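FAQ
Q: What does a multi-component entry look like?
A: The components come first, one per line:
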Amino acid sequence: MAVSAEILCIGTELLLGQIVNTNARFLAQELAALGIPHHYQSVVGDNPERIHHALDVAMARSGLILTTGGLGPTADDLTHPTIAEHFGVPLVRHPEQLTRIEARFRARQRPMSATNARQADLPAGAEVLPNPTGTAPGILWQARPQVLILTFPGVPAEMRAMWQQTAVPFLRSKGWGQEVFISRTLRHWGISESLLAEKAAAYLAQDNPTVAPYAGDGEVKLRITARAATPEAARALIAPVEAGLRALAGDDCYGADDETLASVCGKLLVSTGTTLSVAESCTGGLVGAAITAVPGASRYFAGGVLAYDNALKTQLLAVEEEILIAHGAVSEPAVRQMAEGVRRLTSSDWGLALTGISGPEGGTEQKPVGLVYLALAGPQGTRVQELRLGAERGREAIRLVSSQSALDLLRREIIAQRASGMLKG
Amino acid sequence: MAVSAEILCIGTELLLGQIVNTNARFLAQELAALGIPHHYQSVVGDNPERIHHALDVAMARSGLILTTGGLGPTADDLTHPTIAEHFGVPLVRHPEQLTRIEARFRARQRPMSATNARQADLPAGAEVLPNPTGTAPGILWQARPQVLILTFPGVPAEMRAMWQQTAVPFLRSKGWGQEVFISRTLRHWGISESLLAEKAAAYLAQDNPTVAPYAGDGEVKLRITARAATPEAARALIAPVEAGLRALAGDDCYGADDETLASVCGKLLVSTGTTLSVAESCTGGLVGAAITAVPGASRYFAGGVLAYDNALKTQLLAVEEEILIAHGAVSEPAVRQMAEGVRRLTSSDWGLALTGISGPEGGTEQKPVGLVYLALAGPQGTRVQELRLGAERGREAIRLVSSQSALDLLRREIIAQRASGMLKG
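Then the predicted structure of the entire assembly, as tokens:
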């Protein structure tokens, strides 16, 4: 059996159950993707004697130890001092790291405390594992002929950046992860997990690549995972399966991997040379936030109106008082005028509007919590859609699913108009 | 030291990173609430030899072992057979459990496979830990004078029901969990973790309650954890420490536990009877989304303008062309006019505006990525703030920290005006 890896997460907050251990999950997925065998995970608190014990246990059974947590500036951040002590070496201050940390504080015009300097102290003999997004560096250290140790901070974003930018290339250079597992995730909107699983039954049964369904908050994913000697060979195994799955899902499949409904809409807007504005009521900015999360959104997103108060609906979007009185703000005619109003106001090609009842208060028998109206005003007129999401989903999910459904409405309309030749691109 | 508990999660899906280990988090929270010391967590796959090894390691350091997973009907569910083997006892079939399992299948009119009967086979000498919601029972077993073992299925809902209905009363009857641990988390904005840790040094050094700092995305938390015989006694220990920490943090402490900057601003707006509108550029709706995530936001939030395109800044917010030409859209004068413009447009008491460069593109030497201007227009005039967040944080964090900083600007201004008597409430 190849020498295997082990994950050691250090942090009392994990033992108290204050946070879920997403770092272990991320590293486990990555080790699997690299084909590095991984048989054990452990969690200990910020306690030197138990960290020593956990290191003893791990060294006795694993050749690669990945630690997360305990690299912060405070007195209960003990990972590097304890590792140094464990292997009987002193801590050595790395001036270039100290300079980096000082520079970060200067850049933020924040006072730097003496304790921050501790983050530049690493076990003698260990290489620096640079932290591009935070103050705490980790280490890459062949502490013993049979023991390679990598340390990461507990902050997930910093840990992930360090893993991807430095740790993975380093491990490959040391001969780890020669067999690769490559995954590709197809993303779907507007189809249920069970229905998609039925359509894809033949694929779900096969082995390499494997296909597994996941669902949550309105989205359904199919993860294709292939095992091969090289990334290219793995991708070659994935390609025909992806093509087959896309064919049977049709427009319900909106993208893959890191693509979002917002990024896909962005591509469609760019390719068709059209622009978008939004009028949001119940979502209060979620749609705009999703659209502008995509770099370069300014090429196609004008902005819009957060018409939370009805006064803004009438004043800025020219929704008629009579409509609000006769049908209410959560109604088909109101959302239609909101979409057309914001399109006109911003002189954009598309106006996307939402109004609904997110709860927990404000629902009635006729208009229950979870009732949401979407409208898309465009060159060919206005399309309106009613959603009934159910109160039991809760406010957060109702707002999230509504905003994603609005983007999906835009996506399908652009695709349809492009297919029918009404839109170029 | 009291004899301590240890969590052993069994399941290859955890090692592959296919699921997050929420069971460990749940049990950790429960052990903390019961005051049962808990120093280690481990994860192993569905592999007998490694389960044996993990049991050896756990028995050597812990008196109470809680396992999750591996109780299913399939061949890779090995927890009970391996535990029986580990302690040298046979598996014994429990007829009443078999009857229960058969009944469940009949009730669902589903065929029962022969392998399901395996779930009724438990180590000789172990008591049954009934599973009210699933087929797989667990065990309660004093396997050795010093080792008490409880096993649970991996299905979270089943594990939780079994824990609450049977395991907790059982453990209390055995003298475990006579103490309770209660935690309270103070939330801070506008102060660094290291600086706050220095101020709070005396508290961080004390024992019961303990105080521990955590930081991420601009927020710094102090977690106060007290151990006592009753929840009331624990809260009584926390109260003076919380008071002391709040006193030294001052307005940098914005709330506790589930409070958010948006919910705290909501309370302040309600208590002062004032209303808010927003003009967002770089954040594209994040501030509005955060505000409207709080139920009842319609009482104080009018809405606002997503002024992503400069045309909307001039057209709706009356930002002067000359200002945009002379200073650019990301400038103090521009953000000032945005805040005053949206306040006027919506006739609200407060107008909150943001404009900045979230990157990755669009930065210059004078105006680097991460440069953000905030403005708050109010009854007493307009306050402007400059943030330099640094490009390396990435677009998402820059947008998030900007939106939270804007809410913090509003929070501090309302508190200050209320203190000076300029605002009632």
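Q: Is there any commentary attached?
A: Sometimes. For this entry: Residues 7 and 41 of chain B are 5 Å apart (CA to CA).
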